[in-house]
């Protein structure tokens, strides 16, 4: 099973955020055989949150072979040409290690910050992905869209990967699954997606027609993850910082239909995660592989967890996936 490590990019109260811990984790994940380090995006977070594209650049410069992926970039917030050019150059700088995962976004504050009308987010998302894909794969692009017009546009250099870097899209409703099959190469789940719902959603996603030029239909699960000598050790290290993160999510996701999932009990969280002893985590990974997952992105370190605990868990996952 291909594993990804979702990196904690949060700052802490009273100090500027530091990327040194994320670099240390990324290097250990590379040594441990992880497929990707994975970054998310957030804005208007008072203690601090590292900007996603510059963080990708920093991590690419401090690693050698591990993939640099996102889950995901809030595509409607971006001018598509700038995004295409930046990600293409990141692929060049990293030697072809970029996977670009996108999401629609859900926070009204973030759309207001970028001057984007939230009701336009689907149209902006689709236009952005079309422009990005065409600029990555075409010698010249002329395009007349709702938000962007291009005349004989091109990128130089284009991405290293041929025909282009892979594209992921995250979301859970049918419209997102259909759009992912039509425009992207892989579907990323939410971290709180219930196991009981996954077989149906995987089957639905795989059942939609693939769009012209797509590169497959990967299923990438995002799961809370922590491996320790015992399940009690895992709970001791993870529960308090994860609860704090979930408390924050109930505010961030007040406009989202899945906000209630962040108030569930510990057993409910474990039932949809890869948490416990190494043996229990191996069983959970095998369970998701049987379900049809091609990869699992593990969020090992919520804000507030010590670096020592996070590194131990990364190393344990590397050993059981060897």
UniProtKB/TrEMBL annotation:
<keyword id="KW-0560">Oxidoreductase</keyword>
<keyword id="KW-0285">Flavoprotein</keyword>
<dbReference type="InterPro" id="IPR050172">
    <property type="entry name" value="SsuD_RutA_monooxygenase"/>
</dbReference>
<dbReference type="InterPro" id="IPR011251">
    <property type="entry name" value="Luciferase-like_dom"/>
</dbReference>
<dbReference type="GO" id="GO:0046306">
    <property type="term" value="P:alkanesulfonate catabolic process"/>
</dbReference>
<feature type="domain" description="Luciferase-like">
    <location>
        <begin position="16"/>
        <end position="294"/>
    </location>
</feature>
<dbReference type="InterPro" id="IPR036661">
    <property type="entry name" value="Luciferase-like_sf"/>
</dbReference>
<protein>
    <submittedName>
        <fullName>LLM class flavin-dependent oxidoreductase</fullName>
    </submittedName>
</protein>
<dbReference type="GO" id="GO:0008726">
    <property type="term" value="F:alkanesulfonate monooxygenase activity"/>
</dbReference>
<keyword id="KW-0288">FMN</keyword>
<dbReference type="Pfam" id="PF00296">
    <property type="entry name" value="Bac_luciferase"/>
</dbReference>
<keyword id="KW-0503">Monooxygenase</keyword>
